[in-house]
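ESCALATION

Customer reports they have been waiting on this structure for their group meeting. Please prioritize. Original submission:
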Amino acid sequence: MRRIDASSPPSQEATGVNVTAMALSRDCSRLACGFLDGTVELWETSPTKQRIASYKGDRVSASMGFVPDGRLFASGSEDGTIKLWNGGDGSLHGTLKAPPGLRAVALSNSVLVAAGLDVTLWSLDTPSPITLKKSDSAATTVSISDESDLVAIGCDDKSVHLVDVVNHTTIATFTVHGAIYKLSFLPDKSRLVAQTNTGTFLSLDLLKKCVRGEYVLKDLIQLPDTPLWRGVPVWRCWANEQCWIAALFSQHQTPVPVLWIPSDIRVHRWTQGSSMIALGCTDGRIMLLRLPTSHLS
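Update from on-call: job pushed to the front of the queue and completed.
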């Protein structure tokens, strides 16, 4: 793979401190980062790489997420503290309190959902929380549809739960074969794409309520947060202490490695958007892998 911009905008304050959480805005113009020392930072990624804001807090961010339109982002800590930040200038917008054990946050343009043992939802216009679900297995990731009517929760026991926000009921449960890192709804909400910690994918059919299989190309290219390189979906993979970037070409049944990350770069967290993959390292470095948006000459 050629012409990937691999660059690193390390924080002056957080250099040498583990990256604990990351999120890219949907248009990849902003990157939010959380560090082990409690620092939360907002970076501009395009056209220049510069830090917009840095806040030194006393709580470590376990999860981060942007609203689809980019105007806000959230950072959630394991004690249940959720801070809302302005996505433009990085100023603090407000604070919410979820039950302890928080591990994941997700946002639509109107709703924030936080997940741990409890799944709690807020309208961004009102501060009153709604408990959607309680579970015996802690959540590892959560996703909400753009229309704010469906929530998907991935749990430690390798189950995925689909919850109706309006009726506060679980309408489907799936069992998958790996630990879930990320869940994403297709735009028409017919399927839910589950990405495991190692980088494999599963397509969950929400209409027939069954698991369809791995590496469904037509599903991956529809996701708003899947990076596309000349129309080909690419993403981060990990196995046996090795991290690499893989691509799924139409002529292949399985992904092909296209970029190996040197083993001395210890990637701890990662996030992705339509044109970028961000890798957060144990030494505080952030690597931005920017994909070209036009064909190569």
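Sent to customer with the following note: The first strand starts at residue 5 and ends at 7.
Escalation resolved.
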